[in-house]
Design goal:
It is a single chain. The strands form 3 sheets. This protein has a 6-stranded parallel beta sheet with strand order 3-2-1-4-6-8, with helices on both faces. It has a 3-stranded mixed beta sheet with strand order 9-10-11. It starts with a helix and ends in a 9-residue tail after the last helix. Strand 10, helix 8 and strand 11 form a beta-alpha-beta unit. With 344 residues, it is α/β, with parallel strands linked by helices. The radius of gyration is 21 Å and the shape is elongated. The longest helix is centred in the middle third of the chain and has 29 residues.
Length: 344
């Protein structure tokens, strides 16, 4: 409850630096969309929605958390009880949800976005959840088989984009996310200015599901890289080399990577990263485990040998089972490899 009050205060402060209804109006000449629906107002979704509000978009929102809904309602934002009602009020609907099952429920479940059968009000549906590409592709087909209730701006049929993000909560709040987008290139170009209201980079990845595939591959590489750096640093410590010395070597030689020079896992080596604050904040190990489960399932589906995927999956599953699921994934250095802190 205390955290909810703190978050409520921050949300109000963000949106009410001037009275809510006096948000500066903006010209939508750069965007064909004016009414934006948002479903999923958790840690990521709420911050993304806030940036759309700051950009001047007319918003309609829904979340299963009644307290979050009340906060938005109290600030004058239109709230709806179901995803279907959000769709009926929107040109575009953005979803940001925890898993494939949640996305399927919001799209296909009772009172879901597609509850109206073959008729859809929104021209564009954007899913920014991290889910498997197969689900993204199936939903894209379902959406493209629908018919628009009202045709505008030469849109003949509704379209779906899968647009997962990189950057985490900090980038979501700062509006500096990177969007990896799969689907129609024409729809991507139409949505680009909308996405840039929430991020600083958009990358078109190809057809439906390719955004989801890119996100899974990015996080797989990130996990394996972190484990490799952690393993090498822990081995170095066991052989008598300090982590700071090895880090300097890595960062001036061929081992240099994001896990060594920007997100070092050893407490005491780098300030401002999760390892410097007992692995709090950052990207939770349970989320990394979830994404590795998606990568492993995708590898099995296409029949590709991916031994490092399954090894990383097992390691992060073990870390979560040992009670460290909420700690940043760089905690593998300490909890799996028994690496030591370095005190300067």
């Amino acid at each position: 409850m205390a955290m909810m009050k703190i978050y409520s205060y921050r949300l109000r402060a963000l949106l009410s630096s001037s009275p809510f209804l006096s948000f500066p109006s903006r010209s939508f000449s750069s965007s064909p969309f004016q009414s934006i629906g948002f479903v999923g107002l958790g840690n990521m979704g709420s911050r993304m929605a806030n940036n759309l509000l700051k950009a001047g978009y007319k918003m309609t929102v829904h979340d299963v958390n009644c307290n979050v809904m009340k906060m938005y309602s109290d600030m004058g934002v239109s709230t709806k009880q179901t995803p279907f009602e959000v769709a009926e009020a929107s040109d575009v609907v953005i979803t940001m949800l925890p898993s494939s099952s949640h996305v399927l429920d919001v799209y296909n479940g009772p009172n879901g976005l597609l509850q109206g059968g073959s008729l859809l009000m929104p021209r564009l549906l954007i899913d920014s959840s991290t889910i498997d590409p197969q689900t993204s592709r199936k939903l894209s087909v379902s959406v493209s088989n629908c018919i628009l209730k009202e045709k505008k701006d030469n849109w003949e049929n509704p379209v779906m984009l899968d647009a997962p993000v990189s950057g985490g909560v900090v980038a979501a709040e700062a509006g500096s996310l990177t969007f990896m987008v799969g689907g129609s290139e024409e729809a991507y170009l139409a949505a680009k200015s909308l996405l840039l209201s929430m991020g600083k980079n958009t990358i078109f990845c190809g057809g439906p599901g390719n955004g989801s595939a890119a996100k899974i591959c990015n996080n797989l590489a990130m996990a394996v890289s972190m484990l490799g750096v952690s393993e090498a640093l822990a081995l170095g410590q066991s052989l008598g080399i300090t982590a700071s010395t090895l880090t300097n070597i890595f960062n001036s030689s061929s081992a240099r990577c994001w896990s060594s020079d920007s997100y070092n896992p050893v407490p005491g080596v780098m300030q401002g990263v999760p390892s410097s604050r007992n692995y709090s904040g950052g990207f939770a190990s349970k989320l990394m485990a979830k994404d590795l489960n998606l990568a492993a399932a995708s590898a099995e589906e296409v029949g590709l040998k991916c031994p490092l995927t399954f090894l990383a999956q097992n390691i992060f599953t073990e870390i979560c089972k040992d009670g460290h699921e909420s700690e940043d994934f760089s905690c593998a250095f300490h909890h799996y490899y028994s690496g030591k802190s370095e005190h300067n």
